[in-house]
Design goal:
The chain is α/β, with parallel strands linked by helices. The protein has a single domain, classed as TIM Barrel (Alpha-Beta Barrel). It is built from 14 helices and 8 strands. The protein has an 8-stranded parallel beta sheet with strand order 1-2-3-4-5-6-7-8. α4 runs parallel beside α5 and α5 runs parallel beside α6. The protein is globular and about 55 Å long. The protein starts with a helix and ends in a 9-residue tail after the last helix.
């Protein structure tokens, strides 16, 4: 499907992409300077995308061609901003957040933003939540699936989640390089390790009782929940005799899983999408592309093949996101 076809015969863009990466050149240079690890995210970016030449104008052209009215921007997840230096993480988070907020102001309605938090430093993260949500008016926050092997249900991260719960914030959880990402040599972590790290993050939150105790956070998880739709029954069955599970999760594990939101980046393939539709309420499935690592065209085509109902596609491509982010309801309505 080419760009002209994606415009649907001249119709205005209408989709809301909840998983859209941007590449501010100065931030990318500072991030690379801090990163001493060999993994380079540019290795998985399509050859047609030259990150050195990325601009908001280029992104806007891509949105128009892809029929996207609003993209909620987020930072490139790997290598992230945590390299063991609290000051560096704080400065990189602030730099990215201010850039994304300015871009959203420059193009009203076309871009939103998930603010980056300088975790695992809790005090810095709490200050950045206040600045990002109260001053920059971010649409939510982006956290990684783990920080130094501490997954979101870890008690050390609890004060941050408590504050986000108090604010009824939207929290986008992006998978990260897992602690054991070299299990299969010569295979990029994004191929299978990222979806499994998403699964670990979700299970961490639910089995710890965090989603019960902090019910007002709206969590979004990538790639259709990773492996969770296939493993959810196994998680429930193999923990049914765990001590205090009933007290920690009184409504059951399946209930907690269904409270979460899942976007469909690379989960539009028929078997994966069928599992997600069986697993999650239609109202909690969002359109996301993981652009530019995956193409919008593939998601549009894949969703049309996997979901024959036009009303369901409309809910997934736009309506469910508008319910989470009402301010985008008028963006090229």
């Amino acid at each position: 499907m080419d760009k002209a076809a994606l415009q649907f015969n001249g119709c205005k863009p209408f989709r809301i992409d909840t998983h859209y990466h941007i590449f501010p050149p100065k931030f990318m240079a500072n991030q690379a300077r801090r990163n001493l690890k060999p993994y380079d995210p540019r290795q998985v970016v399509p050859a047609t995308i030259n990150l050195r030449n990325w601009t908001p104008g280029f992104a806007l052209e891509e949105l128009d061609a892809a029929g996207i009215s609003t993209a909620i921007a987020q930072m490139i997840a790997a290598p992230g901003i945590w390299f063991g230096d609290v000051a560096a993480a704080r400065d990189l988070a602030r730099e990215w957040n201010e850039y994304a907020a300015q871009m959203a102001r420059d193009f009203p309605g076309r871009f939103g933003m998930f603010a980056v938090l300088p975790l695992p430093d809790v005090d810095c993260a709490l200050r950045e939540i206040e600045y990002a949500l109260d001053t920059l008016h971010a649409d939510g926050v982006q956290i990684m699936s783990h920080y130094d092997s501490r997954y979101p249900g870890d008690p050390q991260l609890r004060p941050v989640l408590e504050e986000l719960n108090r604010r009824s914030a939207v929290v986008f959880v992006h998978p990260f390089l897992p602690p054991c990402h070299n299990v299969l040599p010569n295979m990029r972590p994004a191929i299978i390790e990222f979806p499994f790290d998403t699964t670990r993050a979700i299970v961490s939150l639910v089995l710890s009782g965090t989603t019960v105790q902090l019910p007002d956070i709206r969590f979004i998880f990538t790639h259709g929940g990773g492996a969770l739709p296939s493993l959810a029954g196994r998680v429930e069955e193999l923990t049914k005799d765990d001590k205090d599970r009933a007290a920690r999760i009184p409504n059951g594990i399946a209930f907690e899983f269904r409270k979460l939101y899942y976007e469909i980046a690379n989960a539009y393939h028929r078997p994966a999408f069928a599992a997600l539709r069986e697993f999650a309420p239609e109202s909690h499935i969002l359109f996301g592309t993981d652009y530019p690592y995956l193409t919008v065209a593939a998601h549009v085509q894949g969703l049309e093949k996997a979901e024959p109902s036009a009303s369901a596609r409309s809910a997934i491509e736009r309506d469910n996101a508008v319910a989470l982010f009402p301010r985008f309801a008028k963006a090229i309505a």
